[in-house]
Amino acid sequence: AQSVTQLDSQVPVFEEAPVELRCNYSSSVSVYLFWYVQYPNQGLQLLLKYLSGSTLVKGINGFEAEFNKSQTSFHLRKPSVHISDTAEYFCAVSDRKTSYDKVIFGPGTSLSVIP
Amino acid sequence: NAGVTQTPKFRVLKTGQSMTLLCAQDMNHEYMYWYRQDPGMGLRLIHYSVGEGTTAKGEVPDGYNVSRLKKQNFLLGLESAAPSQTSVYFCASSPGAGGGTGELFFGEGSRLTVL
After folding, report:
1. What is the topology classification, in CATH, of domain A4-114?
2. Which positions in chain B touch A42 (Cβ < 8 Å)?
3. Burial of B94 (0-12, 13-18, 19+ CB in 10 A)
4. pLDDT by residue (tens digit) across A68-109?
């Protein structure tokens, strides 16, 4: 069965420093990849997605992610974080072989930006 | 532009009580989902629906029932609440087969506490 691993449960980083949030998934066959962000007391919203084509995907708020098929990874990066980036980040994979949009979420990474 | 709306947003129940969470979407999406979010566990799928009048079990369906009598609404019921059902519940929708990629659109969540 498909699974998603986010190795870092918490990532503290100073403001204006770069950050990388790591994500690995169990299979690279017929999947789409997503990063969602959840701000405090809110629902999840899409940050970026990889469907096909270029392995470097750009999203909202200056975030980008790189799809690496050989390493089954989809790490999220931002060159310079802001206080407003403090949130929970979820990596997710959509298994296209099922009859519905089965989306498997990782456990999440809590990003804390320190002033 | 409402998107996905959940009611109520907060609820406190006593063990054994019943309640229903309502999810409404105005995007004409075919697929709808109920997830629960618990600390360190990401989102887990409770039930889903691939169209009006259809429902199916997800990863953690026990203790919950659902109904989708109208395309725009997806109800989640707890017949006899237990403390283990204390969680934040998220409804989501997606366009469905041929119209989507697995990207989910989320409501803002419903926080349920069972005493």
Report:
1. Immunoglobulin-like (2.60.40)
2. 108-109
3. buried
4. 988 999 999 999 999 999 999 999 988 766 656 678 889 999
